[in-house]
Design a protein that fits this description.
Layout (H helix, E strand, L loop, with lengths): L10 E7 L6 H12 L6 E7 L6 H9 L5 E5 L5 H12 L4 E5 L10 H4 L9 E6 L6 H18 L10 E5 L15 H11 L4 E6 L14 H26 L5
Parallel strand pairs: 1-2, 1-4, 2-3, 5-7
Antiparallel strand pairs: 4-6, 5-6
């Protein structure tokens, strides 16, 4: 049973940002408004992954209004995985929540996840009620889910829903290495293998209003497929073969 009035001890909220000038300000403001109802100890972090638009100017302006806003600037683009790893590394509070900077998720729905973070739960993982994307992204997303779910034997229903509340201490037990979107599979698999407990909560997913996805470009899809296979070899097949003494 969850306590709808439960307040978190402290929380870091972060957004990876790449050319999200059209959405990042509203997300940051929404995050601050939501956090006030959830805890007295919070920070908001934006990881700007070398944006080429005017995201930096917007973030610098926001810093003058919000003292608890921390902005991390990458001088070179490190990829989605690199941005997430920076966010986790700079988070200082007991809990960490992240979602994307493109506005396809509503930070106010963090209020739906927080009550589910009870004793015995380590990760509250959102899953999309309905995906609002172009049809080809929906089809590719379903194929991707089926492939990675079976390859990695994942138990969550929506591995690529980047709307997660996590106990920061779990990162003392796992280390993330991916620089691209495969980090979501890597993270969920490693958390699952380490025995951490997931709770899943339905969240809304919205149409992209600004910019374009960096994921579903043909060369990125091919590169991403190769990366996923390499990840599967490294964290699934290779350890299995080693346990069977088939490789060293």
């Amino acid at each position: 049973m969850t306590d709808k009035n439960k307040r978190l001890s402290s929380i870091s909220v972060f957004f990876p940002c790449y050319n999200d000038a059209g959405t990042i300000a509203s997300l940051v403001i929404s995050a601050f408004k939501t956090l006030r109802s959830l805890t007295d100890d919070y920070e908001v972090i934006v990881v700007d992954d070398a944006s080429k638009d005017f995201s930096r100017e917007i973030l610098e302006e926001l810093k003058t209004h919000y003292k608890n806003l921390k902005v991390i600037y990458h001088t070179q683009n490190k990829g989605y995985g690199g941005a997430l790893r920076s966010g986790f590394a700079h988070a200082t509070k007991d809990f960490v929540f992240y979602t994307d900077g493109d506005g396809q998720y509503d930070p106010r729905e963090l209020a739906l996840l927080a009550p589910e973070m009870v004793d015995g739960v380590d990760i509250v993982n959102g899953y999309k009620i309905q995906r609002h994307d172009p049809f080809y992204r929906i089809i590719l997303g379903k194929i991707y889910y089926i492939v990675v779910k079976n390859l990695f034997r994942l138990k969550v229903r929506d591995v690529d829903c980047d709307f997660r509340l996590i106990r920061r201490e779990v990162f003392d037990k796992i280390e993330l290495e991916s620089d691209d979107g495969a980090i979501c599979v890597e993270m969920v698999k490693k958390l699952q293998n380490a025995g951490f407990v997931f709770k899943e909560v339905p969240v809304n997913h919205y149409h992209r209003v600004c910019g374009r996805s960096q994921v579903f470009v043909v060369n990125r899809v091919v590169k991403g497929g190769i990366t996923v296979l390499k990840l599967w070899w490294k964290i699934c097949l290779k350890p299995f073969l080693a346990r069977k003494n088939l490789i060293r």
